[in-house]
Every structure is written in structure tokens, then in C-alpha cells.
Amino acid sequence: MPLLDAVFGGGLGKLVKDVVGSFKLDPEKKAEFQAAIDENAALLAQKQLELQGKYQDAVTEEVKASADIIKVEAQSQSWLPKNVRPLLMLLWGGAIAGNIYIPLIAKLAGVQIDQLMIDPWVYKMTTICVTGYVGFRSLEKIKDAD
Questions:
Q1: How many whole angstroms separate alpha carbon 55 and alpha carbon 137?
Q2: pLDDT tens across 34-64, in order?
Q3: Which of 25, 37, 100, 136 has a CA between 20 and 30 Å from the CA of residue 46?
Q4: Residue 44 in 3-state DSSP?
């Protein structure tokens, strides 16, 4: 969000100066405008703090909503919400493995099937995700075994 970054990063006063500075104004008008900005600097700072607070509240609410969704999925009595992430990982891993092994098996059968070109980061990300998932599930099961 470039606008929010501009608002929160440089401040409202700087943003207003930059916008007005892009227009061709005579020096007297610019001086009047600068005087008005200087007079209202405290109000601009207060508004900036209010905007930052609202932004932080929105981010906090988004994180809470995401956490609530995950909790509801984990506590669901249905098998699908509990198992959708493992199923997606299984399908993803199957697609990667299929891309590797189907052309090899086809070659043994005398059929030419080309392997899809996949960027190396996909393999790395898959390895990280599967390792993390298996590790955290193992920790959960170890904690539940006590």
C-alpha cells in the first residue's frame, strides 16, 4: 500500500507538501500554504497518530480473525476442515512427484513425456513446508502423549 506507506512513513505534513509542491504556485501562495501547514502542525501530527492507531487496530483485527478461523477449523467435527491443509500438501507433493516420476516411468515404457520445468524455489518451498508441517505435527503428538 504505497499511499499508506507515504502517509505513515513521511507524515501527513510531508505528504501535503509534496502534493502541493507538484503544482506550479507563485512564491506568495507557497509561503501562505507553508504558514498554514506550520500553524496546523500539531493537528497534522495528531491526525497522523490517529491514522497509525487505526492502521494498527485493523492489522490486529485481521490477525485475530485469521487465528479464530484456524481455531474453528481445528475444533470442527467434520473431517474436511481438519484435513484440508494436509490434503493440499499431499496433492502438492503428488504433483511434484508426478512431474518427476511419470516421465521416468513413461520412458521405461518407451513413451516420451517431457518433464515440466519448475523453478528450484518451488522444490525448496515444498521441502520447507513439508518439513515444518511434519515437525510441528510431531511436536503436537509428543505433547498430547504426556
A1: 34
A2: 788 778 778 878 888 888 889 999 989 988 8
A3: 25
A4: helix
